[in-house]
Amino acid sequence: MNTRAILSVLGADRVGIVAAISAALAEKGVNIEDIRQSIISGIFSMTMLVTVDEGTHPFEEVQARLAEVAEEIGMQITLQREDVFRFMHRV
Amino acid sequence: MLHISPEEIVETLVMVQQQHLDIRTVTLGISIGDCGADTSDEMARRLYEKVTRAARELVPVCEAIEREYGIPIRNKRISVSPVAVVAGRCASDDLAPVAAAMDRAAEASGVDFIGGFSALVHKGVGAGDDALIRSIPEALATTQRVCSSVNVASTRAGINMDAVARMAHTVKATAELTAAADSIGCAKLVVFANMVEDNPFMAGAVHGSGEADVVVNVGISGPGVVRAVIAAMPDDADLTAVAEAIKATSFKITRAGELVAREAARRLGVAMGIVDLSLAPTPAEGDSVADILEAMGVERCGAPGTTTALALLNDAVKKGGAMGTSSIGGLSGAFIPVSEDAGMVRAVECGALNLEKLEAMTAVCSVGLDMIALPGDTPAETIAGIISDACAIGVINNKTTAARLIPAVGKKAGDHVSWGGLLGAAPVMDVSSWSSARLIRRGGRMPAPLGSLRN
Are residues B122 and B247 located together in one domain of the fold? Predict the structure, then answer.
């Protein structure tokens, strides 16, 4: 079962953020469909639309792996099902 | 392709992480209509089995939804059919064993409160109702999680003044039995006019007779989010603009509630009940309805203009929420509990907010006389007078009102009481010393108002 989700990343800019996150996603079979990224006053901000294949890697497992990455690179990383944003921001 | 803008994503994250957006409660309503028995012990056994079976997956499912959607669900709770209705068959008039079974079932299911130790007596008191009301003080003193509610008035029936007086004495007796814990039993006892049958919020949650066997009801929250939106507006933004901003925010909060309700119902394999649009504060700083009213422009909650601000807030929340769900239910009105709202406590402490102003505020929101600590020596007749005033507002205006009053034994006005957790802490409020006794002793029923003749 493929689940669309939004990955958001926030924190101080540094080398290797995108590399670390995309490596972890690839490892868990998560496909990146879209990326938006900006740096404002040294604060790195990135949102990704991704597809999680829950048949091979459950949502919880991907979240747990991302929590490890967040710890390693000192960033705030959140993975949420896409519906929550669609529900809250679209009539 | 990303259909949601990064700004909208950040807005949602800020709402949750900085402004206390959460789902206040996912409440599983369970019918216990099939748990009636000849003895209260047997009824207790059947109730325990039914509740624990129906609610087995409630907490794990809610926790998974929280994780996956990133929206905290603060409380998972259970409501059951009004026990008095089912207890009519019992030979025993002591229903404390049933309350004990509810308590155990709540604990086994991992929920903090279970509602439904309740009776509806707005027109008269049946055998089951009588046993239930008689059992309330002991039930609340000997359990941790059980909540009790009694409906004493309705627009269609008027006010059962005998029941009002009896409930005032029940409140006093409950306070006495839990005196050692600042009369905490009364914090789990609410007296209603026009009680609703799908309320997910405690202490008044019950599972009505018109409901499916098991349903999921959701109570939204988000006072902090609404306050932040108003605080960010310019000082000269007019009240039409303020109402618009509240509506837009309420829509988003309600959608989160709708999503959680649908998903919880789907995963539990039960019917989705309602989304309750009440803004429910907690004692956490910044999660306050009083703070919203102050952000709108009254110096302190309780100042002249407070009722206007609350009326606008209440109405705008409903208008925004009505677009967000087709399943509005429960109380769906801003809550103004004193002890559970840091801003309300502050307003009482500085003298801006008193009991009479809270009564006026009741007229434009729901459940206005809520979590109010009173001096322990407040006469039962005075408590009955306060309850009946709240009921009169509800009956005449065709809306729900309620009173959750705590006459804290051994405390006087200005003292403090503390119940901890979500119940919070509060100053003991001053009560009029003028007597209501002669009115209350008349008893009888205040007839239903002319406005109830709608057919």
Answer: no
